[in-house]
TrEMBL record:
UniProt-listed GO biological process terms: protein homooligomerization
Species, as recorded: Manacus vitellinus
Annotated BTB domain residues: 3-100
Domain of life: Eukaryota
Pfam annotation, one family: BTB_2
Residues in coiled coil: none
SUPFAM superfamilies named in the record: POZ domain
Protein name: BTB/POZ domain-containing protein KCTD14
Amino acid sequence: LSPIVELNVGGEMYTTTLSTLKKHPGSKLAEMFTGQPKLRTDSEGRFFIDRPGTYFKYILEYLRSNQVPTQCIQDVYKEALFYDIEPLIKQLEDSPQIFGELVARKQFLARVPNYSENIELMIRIARAEAVASRRSSVIVCVVRTEEDAARCQDALNSLDMDKKSVVKFGPWKAAPSISDLLDCIQMDVEAKGYKVSFQPHIAEKGFRFKSHDFFYKFLFTWW
């Protein structure tokens, strides 16, 4: 390989040196340019990498000068994982954005039983009710403790609705509150491309408990 390398990364063109690309020998990026070339070339003979080219400039800047990016942290982190550049991965994981997501929020959600499955269930229910409608709603029951879970079950028995359509989150053993979990649910549903909001669900008269202690309505807006 020539010591000067021309790259086409997802349609973005870069010129760098072979030594820069191989700076971290254990990385996937270095492996691409070790021994026989393992990449296809475009019509101009540039090595082609089928990844988002916009963020490769941050990867390249780190390889050249050890400068950790301060922009597009989440996206650069994904690329660092793909290219398996371990020193950059570790430094990005120390950034507030990645640390907060991986160490704080994700660790909390890991303690909420069936969290990811419940997010998918909410979306399936909302989509099933969206026929010929601008909005559809999903009722969510959120309980933080085992005691609340028992009370919630009593409340569910008093609800005049299809109990199978109520998605239950909790209980969990961690510091975040119910409002924190509700924010996480909204954040993760919106991350999938949906427009959603939530509010306390007010049940009909005669309900045995204050419904807003447990029940919330998530409103999906389709158009």
